[in-house]
Amino acid sequence: MEVFKFANPQYLYALLIIPAMILLFVGMLYWRKKSLKRFGDNRLLSILVPDFSKGWPVVRLILLIAGFTFLIFAIADPQFGSKLEEVKRQGVDLVICLDVSNSMNAQDIKPSRLESAKRSISRLIDQLKGDRIGIVVFAGQAYVQLPITTDYSAARMFLTTINTDIVSTQGTAIAEAINTAMNSFNFDDAHSKAIVIITDGEDHEGDAIKAAQTAAEKGVKLFTIGMGLPEGSPIPILDNRGNVMGYRKDREGNTVVTKLDEVILQQLASIGSGMYVRANTSRAGLELIYEEINKMEKSEFDAKMFSDYEHQFQILLMFALSFTVIELFVLERKGRLQKKIKLFNKTNY
After folding, report:
1. What range defines the domain where residue 68 resides?
2. Distance of alpha carbon 178 from alpha carbon 142, whole angstroms
3. What is the number of structural domains in the chain?
4. How far apart are the first and last CA of the chain?
5. Do 283 and 138 share a domain, yes or no?
6. What count of other Cβ atoms lies within 10 Å of the Cβ of residue 44?
7. pTM of the complete model
8. 319 lies in a domain?
């Protein structure tokens, strides 16, 4: 159930032009400043060209970027749902258990194990037709990040918030992740159910085998994806921007290497009548697993969906035109009104 969507989201990539516009503007200012120095110092130039304004070009750039931004959003055509209807859908209930322990920051799979997994989940969400999806995150403990839903927009939004800081307790509690996923299901209905565990397999907490057996007894299929390479990789320490500041070390000062434990993941998939896939540098393996999930028996259920959407581009287009028109009237030389506005000028007391 998507309350809000863009009819043409591909046009949003045009916003990447904005940093180029800013760099071009800064380069132009540098070139102009260097050129003006040939004619004299700043005091002499202010006498020769008294009406020249240093601040107004910046204002023009801000107005231009604002107008361009609103224009791109208008072209992308934002829409809000206006008519909610109950429809029949067919699908399976799928819960993805995503490991968010520090070892998932390892970069043996680019850009990292966790980011690769998130991108794969995002692609999976794009493929969903009638299935319901939920997300459980786990490290030393497990939490429901997204209850089972058909709201794929919400799933994408919650997915973007996931990082290795979302669960404070470190570890890899696969058993608790399975149990949390099981609690997310409604076993009163006849829907086919599946759990996908995405982890590096280094299980340090609980009895994952017993949890898998309990899930299998209730008819839940269990799939596993191994994130990482068998030879292992050091665990990076990241700053707020995601830059590597160093690598984690043990008490003896040795660099900690995290290795993929495939044995436990293969056992879990075998118990759960599912399949195990090892991720590589090109894909995380969810595509193969979803092909198997698609073969499962579909169940029909009622879901509320928006059947009509109202276009909201008109107001954005109005703002885009307004900022563009204002920008045209802003001159780099001071007019009568601009002379009265001491923009960016320092006041001496």
Report:
1. 4-80+311-340
2. 9
3. 2
4. 61
5. yes
6. 10
7. 0.64
8. yes
- 170 CA to centre of own chain: 23
Q: What is the dihedral of CA 288, 291, 293, 295, to 10 degrees?
A: -150
- CATH code at 134? 3.40.50.410
Report the distance separating Cα 266 and Cα 313, nearest Å.
Answer: 50
Residues 159 and 247 in one domain: yes
Q: Are 264 and 208 in contact (CB under 8 A)?
A: yes
State whether 129 and 56 are in the same domain.
Answer: no
For the chain, 349 residues long, give each residue's pLDDT as a single digit of tens. Answer: 555 667 788 888 899 999 998 998 888 877 877 766 665 555 555 554 554 556 667 888 888 999 999 999 989 888 775 555 555 667 789 999 999 998 999 988 888 999 999 998 998 888 887 788 999 999 989 999 999 988 888 898 899 999 988 888 888 889 999 999 999 998 877 678 999 999 987 766 678 999 999 999 999 999 999 998 878 888 888 777 777 788 888 788 888 888 888 888 999 999 999 999 988 765 657 788 888 888 887 766 555 554 556 677 888 889 889 888 887 776 555 545 444 555 445 544 4
Phi, psi of 82 (to 5 degrees): -120, -20
Peptide bond before residue 9 is cis, with ω within 30 degrees of 0: no
Please check whether residue 182 is in contact with residue 113, taking contact to mean a CB–CB distance below 8 angstroms: no
| 150 in the same domain as 106 | yes
Q: How far apart are CA 180 and CA 160, in angstroms?
A: 21
User: Are 320 and 284 within one domain?
Assistant: no
